Amino acid sequence: MEAPPVTVMPITSGTINMMEYLLQGSVLDSALESLLHRLRGLCDNMEPETFTDHELVYLLKGQQGNPFILRARRSLSHPTAPWHLRYLGQPEVGDKSRHALVRNCVDVAASHSLPDFLNEMGFRMDHEFVTSGHIFRKGAMKVVVCSVSRVLVPGNTENTERMSLSYLVELSVLAPAGQDTVSDDMRSFAEQLKPLIHLEKIDPSKQRH
After folding, report:
1. Residues of the chain by 3-state class (helix, strand, coil), percent to 5
2. Running DSSP on this structure, what letter comes out for residue 193?
3. How would you write 122-170 as a 3-class SS string?
């Protein structure tokens, strides 16, 4: 059986191979409104975007080493919108002077046949989840505040369960390699959110356990 055709389009014109600078944290449900109020005051003067996304994580296991991971995401709020396919590289942890996690990021839009295409290519879906929340913007910086829910029945996004009584908060910037001053701006912005939330450069090795 041949793999179904899949149309892949860059999300942005020009270079799509970028570096992602990332800080992460979490806030309890009880403090959510206070954080949203603070973000409205600090971010660009526009209403934050709301979203509900379904994300599937696919693995391709080789003969040795770590599996190759791709993430397929679709909007539940806008079902006709393109799917998104994302690759995240290994974090660069060597430079301790950077205030943010840095990793390679390739992000493209694709047609709705993407899951079938990945399956035919040998990838297998490892897990899936639903995120729902708000997106704020401050210049090139993006702040995502969202709840994360596990999908209880594979493929059924109506049957989910919150994973915790807190919201994930991510501050990120996409920029060409070498733009390390971005992390200084991110640290300054993160300082303005204290003590409501402490955004940190998370060590990925500590998330595996």
Report:
1. 15, 45, 40
2. T
3. CCEEEEEEEEEEEEEEECCEEEEEEEEEEECCCCCCCCEEECCCEEEEE
99-119 core/surface letters (b: 16 or more CB in 10 A; e: else): bbbbbebbbbbbeeebbebbe
pLDDT of residue 49: 94
What pTM was estimated for this model as a whole? 0.86
The mean of the pLDDT values for the chain is: 88
Q: What is the mean pLDDT of residues 129-144?
A: 96
The Cα 204–Cα 209 span in angstroms is 10
Strand partners, 15: none
Q: Name which of 131, 137, 177, 172 is nearest 150 in CA terms.
A: 131
Token reading at 78: 């806008």
Taking the CA atoms of 33, 39, 41 and 47 in sequence, report the sign of the dihedral they define: negative
Tokens, residue 14: 């020009």
Q: For residues 177 and 150, is the Cβ–Cβ distance under 8 A?
A: no
Burial code (b: 16+ CB inside 10 Å, e: under 16) for 181-205 equals: ebbebbbebbeebeebbebebbeee
Phi and psi at residue 45, in whole multiples of 5°? Answer: -80, 70
